[in-house]
Amino acid sequence: MPRIDLNRLFIGGLYALSGAAAIVWLAQVESFPLTLTWPVFAAAFVYFHWQSVEVNDRLLASPSVMVILTAAVVFGPGQAMLGTAVMAALGAINPADIRRRRIFQLFANFGQLVLSAVMGSWLVELTLPASIAPATMTTVALASAIGAVGYGVVNICLVIAGIRLALRRQNVWPWSGMARLIPSNLIMGFLGGLLGATMVLVGPVTLPLILVVFFVGHLSMDSYARLREAQLDTLAGFTKALEAKDPYTAGHTERVAYFSQLIGVEMGFKGADLERIRVAALIHDIGKLAIPSDLLRKQGRLTTDEYDLMQDHAHMVEEVLGEVEFLRPMLEIASGHHSHFDGAGYGGSGHTEGERPGIEARVLAVADAFDAMTSTRPYRKALTQKYALAELKDKAGTQFDPHCVEALEAALERTGEVYGSTVIESDEVARKIAERNVNFEAPAPEPLVAEDTSDGRTASRG
Predict the structure, then answer these.
(1) How confident is the model at residue 179 (pLDDT cuts 50, 70, 90)?
(2) 20 in helix, strand or coil?
């Protein structure tokens, strides 16, 4: 039997009680909309909420907010808050959560949806004109748009608070993109206001048309989600192909993506910027598909000729993925992850000799180097996190952007996460252990930083 997390149960229960208390209080101050339209709107909200689609990492979207705001306008002052709160309560009872016994999600979603609906409808009641007429339709739409923003803000705040309190996570950047839904909420709220006003003026005969609009909104989101899923599958296919060729890279790209986002959040990056860095990190080593397997898996030091060949992977990513249209904006970042802060290094279009690379490439360079040093490779065992950070700081200002290095150290300290070996603090020792194929300790989460070649250049195999 799974262990019950009492903290999560308490926070979820608190959310659920808050939602239930809001409905009970509203039942005392408002009347319930006893019309045939209420069950239609309720069914639409429940369906579209249950059919929410992922439009970005952990970012679910549906036209349910448009349903809520349309209903709020139709119900009007004195009924809107109670009517939409009960609709939201029904939508929160998701069979998937019940089937998987996700009690926290069930309770938290109940409170979150009810309180969001109450806020949205309260703003509608507060800002609706005294009467709905053709001349006031724009005002009604604006009132509904304001309600949609209120709905979205409360929803975001409750989700972030729930994650922090129930999951004890200070790092909430995976959910930071939720704010990007506010503009779409604004548009759906405005449209919902127009639909609601039309129904008030013309009557229930417009209900089928309103439902069609809701469904078209859902189809557009679903189409985008399917396209995104196909793109992610494409990325996963390239990653699997690389891991099949070089097993030591397994998990490397995902970790580099994670570290890149940690740095980005610490430096103030938001939704779209974080997503761009994440995708660039996932493809940054795809150019290694064009590198001979025996070279990728070599246990000893690279010769000068081998090192020159290994460098090709930084620009080969553009040749391998150049025809994949949705990846083109990220190719310059990926091809510049070996470009140095001082303009040295190497790469593709993301590198210009003597010029400082873009900020995204500088972030990716630090993330790649850190994971490279704290992970086991064919030619060297993993090093400690302390060693890796010291190496990054030693080369800050030349190979690496000092601000990116500081951001990574601050993020790791804030999250309390530790990577790499627990004992190996010497690059030379780590290499000798690997060359002798000694199982000194279990592999940790991979290397990059500087080994000196015969002509004094900086060599990195990340």
Answers:
(1) low
(2) helix
